[in-house]
Amino acid sequence: MIPPPHGGRLVDKVVTGPRRERRAEEIRELPAITPFIDQIYDAEKIAQGAYSPLEGFMDSATLAGVLEKGRLPDGLPWPMPIFLAPPDRASREVLGAVKPGDDIALRDEGGRPFAILHVAEKFPLEKGKVAQGAYGTQDPRHPNVADLTEMGDTALAGPVELVHALDLPAHSFERTPREMREEFQRRGWKNVAGYQCRNPPHTAHEYLQRCTLEREDVDGLLIHPVVGRLKKGDYRPEVILASYDTLVRNYYPPDRVLLASLSITMRYAGPKAALFYAIVRKNYGCGLYIVGRDQAGVGKFYDPFACQRIFDEFDVGVIPLRYGETFYCRICHGMATGKTCAHPPEAHLATSQTGIRQRLLAGESLPTEILRPEVAKILARGDALLPS
């Protein structure tokens, strides 16, 4: 069956109807801040229920519990901090005056007020503790740790109301958790597997997806790429979606696979991020979740299979589908793993996104063994990657 949301209730803080008209007038009169882009995305996802059971940005006690124990105050597993620390230089005047009980407006990057924060607490943000607790390191070479330097030193906590939806580049692919659950019901899907990604598909991704679709306990597959703020050198969001769109349309049965976008900032937190992404997909209606090698890892910061073991430590109400390392075997003429292929390593072609990026940057041809021709054509257009 489609699982209940994390915590048992799907949060809905999206203002609608006549109340929205009143809130739209009120929000223009409120003192306003412009959060860091990550937290702009988070505010919308909180209100839409993607982060259920959170109804707002974490207070200091909740944040400490998440960083130290990986749990919310009621004991529910929750691995990643969701906090609001607007850049001081852009919000100093409002931050200095705001106090618990106040309402303030949150602005998007274009300066439009889009949400209301009901301030419950103002507290100093200990960035070193956030970095260590969330990412296991304070090394500034870690992209999310480096991001902390762009955030302010003061955090605001409290419930969020969404008055205006964000104007997202991936708007046509974006769905709320409620919309996704309704779509699953319309399709008659009861057991849905979620697939997390942040890159265009190669044949290793496709291999895991097809293995999942072969399972008797899977009615459908949600391919749900993160296309919010990524890191330098990553693929552009529109390239990721165009690549997956052509794969789904040309190679998958339309009644078994659904492509949708998830516009949030990528967390490169290894095992904690894998657990977080599973919880988010549970809120969207997925009862199973694909966990490949080194999910949400970056560099050498995490054990590649810690992202699978964490599901033995925390039960989040999702069945993890764990897969080992895959490769293309030139002798088998197809994708394989160490469990299915007897040939030596020199016959194996690694399905490395790093290698594909290097070929793109060098203007070299892309390996046809690990990329569908339609996908390779999209990647070869010349602007597939974000500037480094």
Throw out a few tags for this protein.
single chain, 388 residues, Sulfate adenylyltransferase, six-stranded mixed sheet, five-stranded parallel sheet, 13 helices, 14 strands, 34% helix
Question: Strands, helices and their partners?
Answer:
Layout: H1 17-27, E1 32-33, H2 37-48, E2 56-57, H3 60-69, H4 88-97, E3 103-107, E4 113-118, E5 121-124, H5 127-135, H6 143-148, E6 154-162, H7 177-187, E7 192-197, H8 203-213, E8 220-225, H9 237-251, E9 257-259, H10 271-283, E10 288-291, H11 306-313, E11 319-322, E12 326-329, E13 334-337, E14 348-350, H12 353-362, H13 373-379
Parallel strand pairs: 1-3, 7-8, 7-10, 8-9, 10-11
Antiparallel strand pairs: 2-6, 3-4, 4-6, 5-6, 12-13, 12-14
Helix pairs in contact: 9-13, 10-11
- Using only C-alpha atoms, the radius of gyration works out to 21 Å
The total tally of domains equals 2
- Note the overall shape: globular
CATH topology of the largest domain: Rossmann fold
Number of distinct helices? 13
Strand content: 15-25%
CATH homology superfamily name of the largest domain: HUPs
Order of helices and strands: HEHEHHEEEHHEHEHEHEHEHEEEEHH
Helix content: 25-40%
Number of beta strands: 14
Contiguous uncertain segments of 5+ residues = none
CATH class of the largest domain: Alpha Beta
Average the pLDDT over all residues and give the rounded result. Answer: 95
Characterize the biggest β-sheet. Answer: 6 strands, mixed
